[in-house]
Design a protein that fits this description.
- The chain is elongated and about 100 Å long.
- The protein has 467 residues and is mainly alpha-helical.
- Helix 9 packs across helix 10, helix 13 crosses helix 14 and helix 13 packs antiparallel against helix 15.
- The strands form four sheets. Strands 1-4 form a two-stranded antiparallel ribbon. A two-stranded antiparallel ribbon has the order 2-3. A two-stranded antiparallel ribbon has the order 5-6.
- The protein is built from 20 helices and eight strands.
- Helices cover 46% and strands 9% of the residues.
- It starts with a helix and ends with a strand.
- It folds into four domains: 189 residues, Orthogonal Bundle (Lysozyme), CATH 1.10.530.10; 67 residues, no CATH class; 50 residues, Membrane-bound Lytic Murein Transglycosylase D, Chain A (Roll), CATH 3.10.350.10; 47 residues, LysM domain (Membrane-bound Lytic Murein Transglycosylase D, Chain A), CATH 3.10.350.10.
């Protein structure tokens, strides 16, 4: 009987504490600020102290609860790295207010593409980290569009880039390309956080980090990833948090200037978006915002490749005028489509290096009164390039000075076909002899005459290559 009373008391206590914990957990969001601030841990750099009782994390525990509540397929763990970006993003109230406004237009587009490829809907929040949902965003290395595709990757995933269109800027086309990339990345890596990391730095970098760390956990391999990628995943998690809990941080949605109700037509003709905007009685900028991928403000549809036009859905539209623009009006523009070359800054640097290496090397001897501009004009190069090639700190040239020129329009130097002869006189030195002949150097005289030493003998006949 006494044992029963003891067990009943214990279970009653456990029930009380369990109930109290549940009530405290449920009411954390509604705690008064004065109480909530008591538990805030402002140290977002040091690793939080691990305890059996998670409530010792104080106010920051609420972030974990909130992230857990919105987690679906992609893991949204809470840690000090995520907290750092939550702190940063919650201060950018204006920016996230705009993001919420733009999401009304863009998120349905992203959701459809991701759903068609069976990709988690949470991936759409990456566009905030990548471009702040700006279709015209271009990174320092050339990544372009809302999903920030590099030229090569975009081309590999079916995006067209030519003199009329850059589909990396097309929200619909680019979203499908991004979805396809995530399908492939997840199939290879088997983890969504790793797939997200790969989207930033490439699958190769992620696989190398996995090999170095001996783990497939992003937080373990993080130290072996490029610096930008280490922060990319925490920034993504923080963006998901802020977009879902903006109201908890006094972030107010800002109205977007995008038309939320639209119609889409396919055209097999060349159509001027400027003319179409006039018929629709809307600003040209508003029309281009709906069709950001067309470089010339012209939709270049053909029978083989019809092109999409997105138009605002208007009640009092001039349908006859719209029909005329779409079907009858001619556009005065060359219809020739030219494939775009890469805008990847890294590839362009490599091409420039190869181009210089393949250019002919010309040695120019400065004449009296000649300056760098005159020399540059002669060979069709830039003054700054001549200074770099020759390590010149000054623009002043000295007659007789020899300059190395990488000239594209000049043939590379060939081995001389004939020589001049010179008879060594008393007191001659190799340097003095070299100065007598254009293009001759001490090294070339020694090479051509197979001289092992600099010493000369009077009466010796030297071969001097023609300059």
């Amino acid at each position: 009987m006494i044992k029963k009373i003891i067990f009943a008391s214990v279970f009653a206590c456990l029930g009380y504490f369990s109930s109290a914990s549940a009530q405290q957990t449920l009411k954390l969001d509604s705690l008064p600020k004065v109480h909530h601030n008591i538990f805030i841990n402002t140290d977002t750099v040091a690793v939080p102290v691990v305890s059996e009782n998670p409530l010792t994390m104080g106010g920051n525990f609420i972030y974990k609860l909130r992230l857990d509540s919105i987690t679906k397929t992609v893991p949204l763990p809470y840690n000090e790295y995520v907290q750092q970006y939550i702190d940063i993003y919650t201060k950018r109230k204006d920016m996230f207010g705009k993001m919420i406004g733009l999401s009304s237009y863009y998120f349905p587009i992203f959701d459809k593409a991701l759903k068609d490829y069976n990709i988690p809907q949470e991936i759409k929040y990456l566009t905030i980290v990548e471009s702040q949902m700006n279709p015209h965003a271009i990174s320092r290395v050339g990544a372009t569009g809302i999903w920030q595709f590099m030229f090569g990757t975009g081309k590999a995933y079916g995006l067209k880039m030519d003199n009329f269109v850059d589909e990396r800027k097309d929200p619909i086309q680019a979203s499908y390309a991004a979805a396809a990339y995530f399908r492939d990345a997840f199939e290879e890596l088997g983890d969504w956080l790793l797939a997200i990391a790969a989207y930033n730095c490439g699958k190769g970098n992620v696989n190398r980090a996995i090999d170095k760390a001996g783990s497939r956990d992003f937080w373990v391999i993080r130290q072996f990833l490029p610096k930008e990628t280490r922060n990319y995943v925490p920034a993504f998690i923080a963006a998901v948090y802020v977009m879902n809990y903006s109201n908890k941080h006094q972030i107010t949605a800002q109205a977007s200037n995008m038309f939320l109700k639209t119609d889409t037509v396919q055209t097999t003709r060349f159509v001027s978006l400027s003319t179409l905007a006039k018929v629709l009685n809307i600003e040209e900028a508003a029309m281009m915002a709906l069709n950001p991928s067309y470089k010339k403000k012209i939709v270049n549809g053909t029978d083989d490749e019809p092109k999409r036009i997105v138009m605002p859905k208007l009640k009092d539209a001039d349908y006859a005028g719209i029909y005329d623009v779409l079907n009858n009006q001619e556009v005065d523009v060359s219809m020739k489509v030219v494939a775009a070359s890469t805008d990847d800054v890294r590839d362009l640097r490599k091409k420039k290096t190869k181009s210089v290496a393949a250019s002919a090397v010309v040695y120019h001897k400065v004449t009296a009164g000649q300056n760098l501009t005159a020399v540059a004009d002669k060979y069709g190069v830039e003054v700054q390039d001549i200074r770099v090639w020759n390590g010149l700190k000054s623009k002043t040239l000295v007659p007789g000075q020899k300059l190395k020129i990488y000239a594209k329009n000049h043939k590379p130097l060939k081995a001389p076909s004939s020589f001049l002869s010179y008879k060594v006189k008393t007191g001659d030195t190799l340097s003095e002899i070299a100065e007598k002949f254009d293009g001759a150097t001490v090294q070339s005289i020694r090479r051509d005459n197979r001289l092992s030493k600099a010493g000369l003998q009077v009466g010796m006949i030297l071969k001097i290559s023609k300059g």
